[in-house]
Design goal:
By secondary structure, the protein is mainly β. It contains no helices and 11 strands. Strands 2, 4, 5, 6, 9, 10 and 11 form a 7-stranded mixed sheet that branches. A hairpin with a 6-residue loop joins strand 4 and strand 5.
């Protein structure tokens, strides 16, 4: 079992940047593939990006490519999401998730509690 705690959300103006963090504890962080998802009000949770155990492989949702960057520091047991050029449609609760499989499978993943990101236009 792994415990995940997101942080770094907040209110930002359109065009601004935020960096989200996800601190992991309970099991060896490097044994998990990791991912970021988000859920906007009234919408389903959607995949944003994932990263393999060592960080050598990443995938992104098309709409965030070039704006968002997923990374991890296995020495700090932390996952990151750097978000640049934020838009109002990026407003959502952002979740990190951990999976023991690669490609990442959300069906069997462990989830954090989420952090709110609000982008004002």
């Amino acid at each position: 079992q792994v415990r995940l705690v997101e942080s770094g959300g907040g209110l930002v103006q359109a065009g601004g940047s935020l960096r989200l963090s996800c601190a992991a504890s309970g099991r060896t962080f490097s044994s998990f593939a990791m991912a970021w998802f988000r859920q906007a009000p009234g919408k389903e949770r959607e995949f944003l990006a994932d990263i393999s155990w060592g960080g050598g492989n990443t995938n992104y949702k098309d709409s965030v490519k070039g704006r968002f960057t997923i990374s991890r520091d296995n020495t700090k047991n932390t996952l990151y999401l750097q978000m640049n050029n934020l838009k109002s449609e990026d407003t959502a609760v952002y979740y990190c998730a951990a999976s023991t499989t690669w490609p990442f499978r959300s069906e069997s993943a462990s989830w954090g509690q989420g952090t709110q990101v609000t982008v004002s236009s």
